[in-house]
Design a protein that fits this description.
This protein has 5 helices and 7 strands. By secondary structure, it is of the alpha/beta class. The longest helix has 17 residues, at 27-43. It starts with a strand and ends with a strand. The model has no long low-confidence stretch (mean pLDDT 94).
Length: 164
Amino acid sequence: MRTLLLMRHAKSDYPAGVPDRERPLAARGERDAVAAGIWLHATFPAIDQVTVSPARRAHETWTRVAPYVEVGDVQEDARVYDDWGANLRDVVAGIPSAARTALVIGHNPGIEEFTLSHATTGDPRARERVLQKFPTSAIAVLHLPNAWVDAHGCALAAFAIPRG
């Protein structure tokens, strides 16, 4: 079994004149990203593969999460940002087969849509919470029965909204 952790970046700021890709985290986002790192440490202390959007707010989220987890490989992938995550299936399919736990830090609507369209089984309460809202810093935990490329039919095991 493989575990895919889909995390929406922490709360960002909206400084005037700053392009979307360069928006930093807000003070609340900095706190929430640390809380997410603490939650991950308690739940998944070792992560084999991390894939991060090239957006500044996603990188700043990862920077605050990273001290709390043991990680194998970290990579940036523009497809997590492009088209708001429309190509997440390709990103997940590209996770190395040796990885058992992977974290993707990205954006909505892509993170939420991937979770809802691929997690066809699992905890109905978690699914209901995702349907209500996939807020910043939230993490969906999906269990995949086979290969990363076989993401359809995975189970939504949990949905966490860490707050700092």
